[in-house]
Write a sequence for this structure.
């Protein structure tokens, strides 16, 4: 990979780990702290052109570019006094329990994504990453699915407000990117693509192929609903059968991606069976598409991922390294300093290498498809629903 001229804005501050729903909640901020430590110990953050920037908290005016003032007030009130939780706004539920300072740290995550978005759009850097962000389930007026404010949507809106006319968003989280899709469903300037486990078996119950955009934006919502059990080979086949042809036809000016790594086989909340190697392959593919189509403009966020030690830190360290223009070889050893920290902190047994030992191979759609195969049926359903809206043949 040619890393000449690659610059990277990384949003990070220890304060971001205060996004903490409490003991027993899957969204444990340990995954964030371990990711930052692993990326640091592997030297990713010391590379030339990489800047680690502490974000500033998004103010109400910025949040209100996406969220309603009533919702912002409800979040602030619930964070000041959990007894003020407003279930009508999705607060105080099992998924989104209230905690002290909830508004402040949620707004800080938004600030990190927006700062990276503005840096990428303004070309002060080529790439931006906020792995603490990717809170894609939050709606304009409600928290949902562990997500309070939708940092991705606010980041996209910031680029639109700065003059962007075609923003592409690709979501590879195991759950449908419903909040981002809903917020921009009728905006022809934003293309949302989500690859996720079928909503027939997984939260949030949306993301069917026939969700293709509002009346003024037909074809700008693309949903690939994958069968439970789909692994690297099938997932990458689906990705390459849908994402590159749509992006090449739509010609985005900037690529935004959400990298929830809960598609991994070890993730406790879903039913896909990817490896870190398959996830790494998707990161490389998205970086290549950003370079091919968007003049290198690429903003990446984190998202879901609940295998706290074995998966999330390795996956997102690979993401950071690829965004820095210096991919880590899959067979690379995990630094002993990081493994020792995991051991002495009683977090379990750390992995020894940055790979799960998979190859990331897949068969290309153009080589033929099997109409009796459940995965190919899912791919074809998406292509049939949306490809004609872009002047593409769903069969070819």
């Amino acid at each position: 990979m040619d890393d000449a001229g690659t610059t990277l804005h990384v949003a990070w501050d220890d304060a971001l780990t205060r996004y903490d729903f409490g003991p027993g909640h899957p969204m444990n901020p340990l995954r964030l702290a371990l990711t930052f430590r692993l990326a640091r110990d592997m030297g990713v953050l010391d590379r030339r052109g990489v800047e680690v920037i502490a974000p500033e908290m998004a103010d109400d005016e910025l949040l209100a570019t996406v969220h309603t003032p009533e919702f912002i007030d409800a979040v602030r009130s619930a964070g000041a006094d959990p007894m003020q939780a407003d279930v009508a706004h999705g607060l105080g539920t099992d998924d989104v329990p209230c905690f002290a300072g909830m508004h402040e740290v949620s707004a800080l995550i938004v600030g990190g994504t927006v700062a990276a978005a503005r840096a990428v759009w303004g070309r002060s850097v080529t790439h931006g990453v906020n792995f603490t962000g990717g809170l894609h389930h939050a709606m304009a007026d409600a928290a949902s699915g562990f997500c309070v404010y939708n940092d991705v949507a606010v980041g996209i809106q910031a680029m639109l407000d700065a003059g962007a006319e075609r923003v592409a968003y690709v979501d590879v989280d195991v759950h449908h990117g419903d909040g981002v899709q809903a917020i921009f469903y009728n905006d022809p300037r934003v293309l949302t693509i989500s690859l996720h486990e079928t909503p027939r078996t997984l939260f949030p119950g949306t993301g069917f192929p026939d969700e293709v955009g509002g009346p003024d934006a037909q074809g700008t919502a693309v949903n690939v609903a994958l069968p439970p059990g789909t692994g690297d080979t099938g997932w990458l086949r689906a990705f390459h059968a849908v994402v590159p042809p749509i992006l090449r036809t739509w010609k985005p000016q900037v690529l935004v991606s959400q990298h929830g790594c809960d598609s991994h086989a070890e993730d406790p909340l879903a039913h896909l069976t990817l490896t870190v190697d398959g996830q790494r392959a998707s990161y490389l593919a998205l970086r290549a598409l950003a370079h091919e189509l968007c003049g290198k403009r690429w903003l990446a966020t984190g998202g879901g991922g609940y295998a706290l030690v074995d998966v999330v830190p390795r996956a997102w360290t690979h993401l950071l390294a690829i965004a820095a223009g210096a991919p880590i070889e899959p067979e690379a050893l995990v630094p002993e300093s990081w493994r020792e920290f995991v051991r002495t902190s009683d977090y379990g047994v750390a992995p020894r290498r940055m790979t799960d030992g998979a190859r990331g191979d897949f068969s290309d759609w153009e080589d033929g498809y099997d109409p009796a195969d459940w995965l190919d049926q899912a791919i074809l359903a998406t292509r049939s629903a949306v490809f004609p809206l872009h002047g593409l043949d769903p069969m070819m």
Summary: DSSP finds eleven helices and eight strands in the chain.
